[in-house]
Protein 1
Amino acid sequence: MNRQYALPLTAVLGGAAALVLRLLQNNTGFEADTGLPIPGNLAELALAVLLIALAAGLLGSSCLLPREEEEDSPALPRDFTTTSTALLTLPVAGVFLMALGGLADLAECFRLLPEGLGFSRHELYRILRDGGLGFSSRGQLLMGVLVLAAAAILFLMAAGCRRREKELGRMLPPTLTLFPVAAMVVRLVLVYRVDSVNPSLTMYYLELLALVFLTLGFYRLSSFSFQAGQTRRFGLYASAAVVLSAASLADGSIYLSSLLLNTGGAITLLGFLLLRIANGIEAEEDDGTIIGPAE
């Protein structure tokens, strides 16, 4: 196996381990009555150690990816194209999950629109503790529309990476590729407004970090459309998003739409990362050179 695949492999395995530890923490690390964390919980400490170790591992693995010069920066879709249907399946599947997340937001919104939420601060905390979120109807509607639009743009970006013989896919206007970033920023702000009423940061920090790195991952992905992308930086943010999104799946205190969005976003970024790595390896084989970390 090419060493450049060490980064996505570390992200997937690390995400699986983080998910298991987060499940253990949720089962043993919180008081049943109040929902507050139990100090000194072993699963919580193990998860913290694992995340720190993974941060170092991902940073080291990202150095195995090619280091491009600014004047020779890879472009999207030119340097992400492939003839492999299997490679394209992964980002398309992620986009599909994101779209389902947007539809779930709209479904929840229209169910709540007639009366609205209007929860007090105490009621919101109770909902968080019992396993739910209290987005307003307008906020839910906005998130649903933005996520669906972002999924459509990402699908076109993935479709542009399909290569038939020597023909390159069509390139979207670079400005459009920033739309998924904007959608994730809005999602992050609205989620934080709801989560911030919870007095226990331990209960929701993984979801917020997952959204932060999903936003950064999509931002670094969009930079390739402006021919200003850096594979190492994109790979680092994308792999961190995979780990944190996987760990956040263990939290039952988020909507189905959030589960679908986080999972779909992580799979989408992972898919584009694999496309970039595979394309770079093919380029090495074509010209007989070896692209590796700078000495």
Protein 2
Amino acid sequence: MHVVTAKGILSSKNGMNLYRGCSHGCIYCDSRSKCYHIEHAFEDIEVKENAIDLLSYALRHKRKKCMIGTGSMTDPYIPLEMEIRNVRKALQLIEEYGFGFTVITKSDRILRDLDLLQKIHEKTKCVVQMTLTTYDENLCRKIEPNVSTTKERFAALKRLRDTGIPTVVWMTPILPFINDTKENISGILDMCIEAKVYGIICFGMGLTLREGNREYFYKQLDLLFPQLKEKYIQTYGNQYIVESPNSKQLMKLFHQKCSQYGIVHNNEQIFHYLQTFEEKNTTEQLTLWNFNTK
């Protein structure tokens, strides 16, 4: 890790990255792309030493309450978080100032902060977004080696369900010739059904490859799936969007099963839900509670 002093913490859309870089080792990670200008080694985590002070200042001076998000570039629940605790400190501020919160993660370490997530959701809205790409545990350990396995994430989703915190699953990316099968998609969907997720974000059955992440992905294919890199090159060349040959039938299965079980599967609708701040009427709730106990 290395430490930097940041100039700001919230983006124009109220997203934040408390860290830059990641140690999860997912073979397909788009955040490795050169367009994001991470100039240091990706596994050398950049820690913003003044992140919490910047967030405190930003929240105090916000004119309107809103949803605060994190995790779009770097999973905030990397192992380093358990030592530095910047996410927990940020959650304490978000709860104190009455803002909503949403996070994208692949780690069941989020359960450490379940108490604060619940407090935020009692006042406003808290939504946990969890990525699930691979139903098979052995394959998960190959393509997402240093993170909670799918079963561990599934257990976290069920725990969140039981505490009343809504969840959204990112079913992306789906890697052609690796996990683009009916068995895999059905397995993930069955988990989502059991966990009673609010919605599933899916950008199609495939992945994106561009300078930076393409080279890393191909290097990992050589190590884990010999000769598969050549098949990718022959099939897709230098395409940015790499779509599975099974895309149409898998997307049909995805939409049919989501519709059948009442899972939101329109990306725009889910993003609107994630961005919409909702303040609970605590006075009304207390009045109703007092009336019902008489």
